[in-house]
Amino acid sequence: xxxxKTITVTVNNEEYTSTVNxxxxxxxYLREDLGLTGSHVGCEHGVCGACTLDMNGxxxxxxxxxxxxxxxxxxxxxxxxxxxxxxxxxxxSFAKNNALQCGYCTPGMLSSALEYxxxxxxxxxxxxxxxxxxxxxxxxxxxAIVEAIYDVAENGVSK
Amino acid sequence: xxxPKFSFDKPGKYIGQPTExxxxxxxxxxxxxxxxxxxxxRMLHAAFLRSPVAHAKIKSIDTSIAxxxxxxxxxxxxxxxxxxxxxYVGVLSHLAxxxxxxxxxxxxxxxxxxxxxxxxxxxxxxxxxxDAASEIILDxxxxxxxxxxxxxxxxxxxxxxxxxxxxxxxxxxxDVGNVDEVYARDDVxxxxxxxxxxxxxxxxxxxxxxxxxxxxxxxxxxxxxSGQAPHMMQFIYAKHLDIPEENVRVTAHDVGGAFGIKVHTxxxxxxxxxxxxxxxxxxxxxxxxxxSFMSDIHARDHVINSKMTVxxxxxxxxxxxxxLTGIGPFSMYPRTSAIEAxxxxxLTGGPYTIPNYRANAKVVFQNxxxxxxxxxxxxxxxxxxxxxxxxxxAAAINLDSVELRKRNLIPDDTYPTxxxxxxxxxxxxHQKALSKLIEMMDYEKLKKENADLxxxxxxxxxxxxxxxxVTNPSPxxxxxxxxxxxxxxxxxxxLDAGGGIHVASSVTEQGQGTNAVLAQVAADVFGVDxxxxxxxxxxxxxxxxxxxxxxxxxxxxxxxxxYLAAEALKDQVLDVAxxxxxxxxxxxxxxxxxxxxxxSKEKRMSLADxxxxxYYRGNELPSDMSPExxxxxxxxxxxxxxxxxxxxxxxxxxxxxxxxxxKILNFWAVEDCGRVINxxxxxxxxxxxxxxxxxxxxxxxxxxxxxxxxxxxxxxDYLVPMAxxxxxxxxxxxETPTKTSVLGxxxxxxxxxxGAPACIINAVNDILRPLGVTNYQIxxxxxxxLDTLRSAKI
Lengths: 159, 794
Description:
The complex is a heterodimer. By secondary structure, chain A is α+β, with helices and mostly antiparallel strands.
């Protein structure tokens, strides 16, 4: 049985070619092999959402994807979120609203929130709450997160 | 009076403002530094084989296959730690009679709970360590397990520790006044209820994590710690691994949630340090979620039989209850597992005048995971118990429960006073808080709306809680009983050559915003922009000695130490400036990074100029002057054992009587945590606390089978609150500063968790009671509520 495979993945606009153990999760590959520790492991079974990130324009749970499945894919982690546009606005809004405490859920939360906003999500608190229900936060009580996303949905990108 | 001579009343540029936390910048860029983010050269990884059963003799452990797996470096059993780790016992001398057996990091000859670590595998990767652990053959001889709390003290129940005559760990009785005389009266009404509080746990999103590194050349142990109390752990590692305390450095960088889960001594973490010492290499251990559920401390687990007696005109006359609480096979080290029951005895009824009070608490051993202090220790039990009985009593005498509260709350103008159980209370505002709450929620309108909707078949209820919270504890909490847990904290502030300041504090940050609050205080009091303040916390080597963060003490105690140090540094700077500027220090001040003239506000010199002169060009100073630009101050509460806060909270809920599902429509919390240093942070502390409290009331429970198997060990089976289920939480404040400090800040971290369960329980019972039934078992799951509704009159 072959237990390693060589993959080529574009992460945050940089291309990496690596030989990985076929059983290795994408999140472990990003954290251990590439040193991109911004994405977090919370439950390793796809429930808590801490490891959520963008793969080819879709949010995925990187603990439920093998690194070999990411071969040829384009991935954006929290480290690669642009410092402009909607992503930057969202980060500013998170800071302004204190939408993070320990920061462990934050990478996944930002990823889900961006998915919501980029797909035309409205300034509607109930819809925002529903959208981020796959991302657990044990610190904030969620309200500040909802407000942070709401503010960006309402105001868009400031000029 | 040992408190401060004056109170802080200066309006601040930062103190009292919703200032953004500087730490969010790092965390929003993915540049946090959690334990698993750290890689050390030659680091090994640990995995543990844990007991699959609740109680058994270890007959043999066969590691022969595991040893030969490529990448496995070492396998250690419980016996391998004998002589390397000094056993530890979770008792405190001020909890008279508390007993527990010695613990070792791994089970030695007997396993006593499912999940107890038995074998440690150390390998080149965690994956290999887990592979090897699964190849170890444990030969266990099953022993009968004591898992039922209510039967734990029965004669025919297995006794977990052979050196003891029973499974009783601790017992205490409080008896004030004479409850029996009250029962004998014929003008009173007594209500009786049983309360059942299930086990739940903290579910920190970052599970427990440790890296231990040992350098034999200097006999130096470095611990990278995801936790709350670095100095406490420094002592514990030093003592139990026989290393001088000053040679142990414990550092906590970013911590992904703690909530009291990460303030205890866990066998797997001690084993990791011991193995690092043995192997002279760094070792990393991360609990996975499965291990977290089985080994992070669980909380609560109480069976309480209780009654309250009131006069027909609405005065609470007596409160009596028996609390039975199960703590697992050992009392946790070093805080012990008896503190929660002790808190229940001390705090129940604390907001009210209750002349007669009798309570007994029994703490028992069980073959389940250990139970210990988790956020709001004892408070949710104490508050749900008293305010639940109060709601029942109000219904029994046909009085609105808010009115019954008003008639019995300790009046705002009677402080200082003492609670029935002997707690010293001061600077509280129950009446103001309740009035503000009633106004915020528009109670009368809401009640009417509920009544109207009921006619349309909608079942809505309102539940209240008036509460007290223990914050800013003095040495009376732990230190008095011999625990290595500081109640004082220190701050060192240094003026750097560039004109900025560096704050080093012994309180710690787990996301509450501790670092931001300390920076706010330092910036305001000393007189620099917050951008020029650097804060270091979570490091035994570079911060003053202190207790860390627990029992809502960071802002109140740590903040006060920073206040005092900033004042002292300012005096030092102005002394130097006085000489350099040929002015009297009292005519000068510091503002926005400059020494200014106090009257004209004119800038005289920059702090950078002053610091550079002192540090580089001492020749310009008089030779008899030895300027210090660094000040350390410590603070502890001395007037009183605890600085209590108070709050009033309410929930508005809807019960679907077909499904048993409770929807929370709204939640209000009015909190008096004294001076609010950062309202944005306090509000989200309250909200986060409330949401954890809602989780306990409705969803979260560690479920065990009769033979001690934990049945829900994934986040798919153990439910935590999600965004969509949570209500808007409206927070209001009353600010009654504590007189024990200059800043006047009390703690705010646990109030929500302490009060929210009572509100939810009371709101659901507000719906159930008119239907002829009640439910006082939490979590109030749909199944339990449907069971209750079966005998309801609908």
